[in-house]
Amino acid sequence: MNNQRSFFFNVDWLTILIYLCLCTIGWFNIHAAVFDETHPQIIDLDTEYGKQFIFIISAVVLGAVILLLDSRFFNGLAPVFYVVTVLLLIAVLVVGRNVGGNQAWIPLGSFRLQPSEFAKFSTCLLLARYLSGVNIRITEPKSFFTAAAIIALPMFLIMMQPDTGSTLVFCSFIFILYREGLSPIFLIAAGLAITLFILALLVNEWYIIGALAAVAGAILFFIRRTPQTVITIVAVLAICIAFIFVIKPLYAHFPSHQKARIDELLGITSDKRGIGYNVNQSKIAIGSGKLWGKGYLEGTQTKYSFVPAQSTDFIFCTIGEEWGFAGSVVVIGLYMFLLMRIIMMAERQRSPFSRVYGYGVASIIFFHVIINIGMTVGLVPVIGIPLPFISYGGSSLWSFTILLFILIKLDSNRLGHIL
Amino acid sequence: MNSFFERRYVITAIFITLALVLLGRLYYIQIMDDRYLLSAKENVLRRTISYPARGAIFDRNGKILVQNVPVYDIMVTPREVKPFDTLEFCKLLSIDKEGFDKRFQKAKKFSPFRQSIFEKQIPVQLYASLQERMSDFPGFEAVPRTVRTYPDSTAAHFLGYIGEVNDKMIEKSGNYYRRGDYVGISGVERAFEDVLRGQRGVTYNMVDSRNVSKGSFSNGEFDTVAVTGERLVSSLDLRIQKLGEKLMTNKVGSIVAIEPSTGEILAFVSSPTYDPNLMTGRERGNNLSKMYKDPYNPMFIRPIQARYPPGSSFKPLDALIALQEGIITPQTTFFCPHYYQAGNHQVKCEHFDGVTDLRKAISQSCNTYFCYVFDKLMNARGVKNIRPALTTWKEQVNKFGFGVKMDIELPFESRGNVPTPLRYDNVFGKNRWRSSSIISLAIGQGELLATPLQMANIEAVMANRGFYYKPHLIKAIGDKNIIKEEYTKRNYVGIDEKYFEPVIDGMQDVVDRGTAAAARIPGIVMCGKTGTVQNPHGKNHSVFVAFAPRDTPKIAIAVIVENAGYGSSWAAPIGSYMIEKYLRDTITKPKAQVQYIVNANLLPPPPGWKPPVRKLTKKDSVKIDSARKSKADTIRKQQELKSAGERKKKDTLNKILAYQPKRKEDE
């Protein structure tokens, strides 16, 4: 048993340092994004950057509190957290405030609480607790479906808001399942499905089918042909072809604004003044940063509100514009460093609960980073999810802080009692 | 327990791969692609140009020839336009609904949220009624600009006009100009464009996504202030310029007056002229095309572009060269039997002068005398050596500024013509011509062609007894009154001063008791020479050249009235009025005489004009069929004439559009 004395030595200070770096970067960039000559002070509670300062301070306090809690607390209370967030998700559908078409916020005084943010870590906790249980094998259907249900319930509730971005975040849990033994076929199938989806929208389906058939033929030619492999490959091919034919009718039933975003992204339509305005202005902001950027508070695209939602979902524009490619590399580098560190931390856990949880944290952060930045540079359709630790917003900052600090807490205890 | 440990690497690989994809994309849009930087600038920077007032032009006494008046450009920002009373607005702007729609679509096409010109140059009177209603038309704004105005409506050809730049000019200026800018297109406006235009001011402002100004860019580091164009002081004397234009009413021709002691041009009359105020404002295009259709071509700058044989006014120059060459002395006499026999053709002399010396020859304008002189000059080195003799003669004539460009400030100047031996080789065959073949040069006819400016300059040389200053129209530039150095240099013509007096004696006689007696003004010793220039296309041109007073010359002048007949009857009185007005600021001759000249209409019939054909009546004992035939002929001819006329008009118009009317250069 470790004593309290070594507690601080066991905390992963490097992760905390990266966390603080990202928060600070966020704060300065929010300042730049909403910068206004009439409120030049960086601490001013009327402004977003003033509020973000409070959020950061409170998040750090929150993190410290988490570090002081008993690590068994999280394992034990995981179902409670889960139930509470599910209840909040239901509540938000009833009493929530509708902002921009999404019923996602519960007003609390001058702040607004976004339960979907908290659903991320509570789902993660419960999933970790479930998968770390004795006799749980993800390869077994019962376990698989239970795990899937844990993920699907909050997904469904968030979809009701409707908040597509946050819903899709839960898809990232596929990495946890994969790490815990889920067949790689699921990952490959997911990748294949996305590829086929994009291709089907862009290219004549018969070309795709021809190409797929050619690939299947080549595989059959080179591998040892047993009845089993032949049947498998033919079956996969048949599923793919069937999938291709359902894509278009299915796509026709997508909500029209999402369809428009996807069309714009794939270049099927081009409407830089309408649906494509955000992304075009965002690309202009980032692209005009060149190598070293325009300098702090000098970004005209963001300062003069050409990019909408520039302190929240499009915060990366400010980084790209004012700090250039160099700044972008630093930020993405920090995220990748953090993710590597989290995976390392996850893998050094003796308890499966901590490991599964660690992968959950990595998956969630990774998904947010890739989708958010991908969206600002026009690689991913516009999906409203924040950039972890950087985007403006208390709920999102707190939820990411809790998410990360629980891991740090669990990690600091890795040499102690097995949970 | 940790059975799938190796899968961490798969996950790590997926993370890193996708991160690299992002970085690759960022590298592409931030480093490789420059479009976004341009787009960002376009988003945020708004260039506002402030136009400086063009420099004003004054006459030599400080009277204004051109200045600026305020007008208003109506600008529109389509996005900000809200429903309003379109009909009312059209009425205020005096445009129709169709025109409104056309302009609005054009502005919308340019940019829905940027300002562009809706209607140009609304005069102040129209703006006054519009101004108070402006707030009813959101999205529209009136921007003050200036246009040229000419208080005395005079000196149109000298001043020239300004117009919008075309693409070719923009390119030529290295993109200094922008579409919609005004530049000098002819006259001084063109020649002194760089000085008159001033400097544009540019203000860079930044705007946000709602086009709301966010202050200046880089604290105004790149902004410049508009600098008003420099003022020009012209050498013109408004009094005689106006008089000249009045005297030339309904006449085709030109008057050029020069101050011999400086080379400053005092009058620059080209007739028919036009009101320069027609060249400004909204009606400019219509007025311009009307003028190009005018058969008398008011746009033609006759003082420097029209070329006339100098006729008898050339004779003093003949005499000077002969005196310098030692061919004659003032006492040399020739016998005039009413003609000069040159080989097998006769050069007629208007009168029987008998024994004639230089003074008499000039005062009586004796053709015979000058034919003898020219013949002797050409054959001085032997009959075989006529080529070098003619070449030398040409060089001597060129020194007077004759047959070469005077380098006046205005564009499109003609250099006139003094023939070379080659020219006669082409006419007669190489070396198959003699002095008798080219004898018409002696009396200023034949291939000799001079512009009115050159004729006036020769008088300036006479007045100065042997040199001239380059004639120029601009006395001083800017507030510092800069004078170009080349205008202070004497240009000697290579004739010794002593040879001038005998010639000038003759010229004084011309006015005192010779051909230009009508021009005599009591109390002013004037020296002049008339000319009646043979015109193969119609009536003779009336020419008068002079300078006065004899001993302290203040003015040298050349007057040409086309198709007016004798020099003594029209050009001489006009010249004398101009001189007296300049020297005394008044005209002592009876007003009726002056008015007679002003009222006289000497316009030649326009090209294509035919005397009215008398209608056939039954009384005419003409066979019906022959009448029918002649009628058919007439119709056919009329149609031919009409189409020819139209073709000509079209050609002229094309020339104008190119802004570079090509003038015939030397043959």
From TrEMBL, chain A:
Listed transmembrane segments: 7-30, 50-69, 76-95, 181-200, 206-223, 230-251, 323-344, 356-383, 389-408
Keyword Membrane (UniProt): yes
A Gene Ontology BP annotation from the UniProt entry: peptidoglycan biosynthetic process
Keywords, ordered alphabetically: Cell membrane, Cell shape, Cell wall biogenesis/degradation, Glycosyltransferase, Membrane, Peptidoglycan synthesis, Transferase, Transmembrane, Transmembrane helix
Membrane topology: Multi-pass membrane protein
GO molecular-function terms, A-Z: glycosyltransferase activity; lipid-linked peptidoglycan transporter activity
Compartmental location: Membrane
Short name of any one Pfam family annotated for the protein: FTSW_RODA_SPOVE
Origin: domain of life: Bacteria
Cellular component, GO, one term: plasma membrane
Main location: membrane
Keyword Glycosyltransferase: yes
Name under which the protein is recorded: Cell wall polymerase
Organism: Mucilaginibacter aquatilis
Lineage: Bacteria, Pseudomonadati, Bacteroidota, Sphingobacteriia, Sphingobacteriales
UniProtKB/TrEMBL annotation, chain B:
Gene Ontology biological-process annotations: cell wall organization; peptidoglycan biosynthetic process; proteolysis; regulation of cell shape
Basic and acidic residues bias locations: 618-653
GO cellular component, one term: plasma membrane
Residues spanning the membrane: 9-28
Domain Penicillin-binding protein transpeptidase: 253-575
SUPFAM superfamilies recorded: beta-lactamase/transpeptidase-like (SSF56601), Penicillin binding protein dimerisation domain (SSF56519)
Segments for region (Disordered): 607-667
Limits of the Penicillin-binding protein dimerisation domain: 51-211
EC number: 3.4.16.4
Record-level Gene Ontology MF annotations: penicillin binding; peptidoglycan L,D-transpeptidase activity; serine-type D-Ala-D-Ala carboxypeptidase activity
Membrane-related topology note: Single-pass membrane protein
Domain of life: Bacteria
NCBIfam families: pbp2_mrdA (TIGR03423)
UniProt name for this protein: Penicillin-binding protein 2
Protein source organism: Mucilaginibacter aquatilis
Gene that encodes it: mrdA
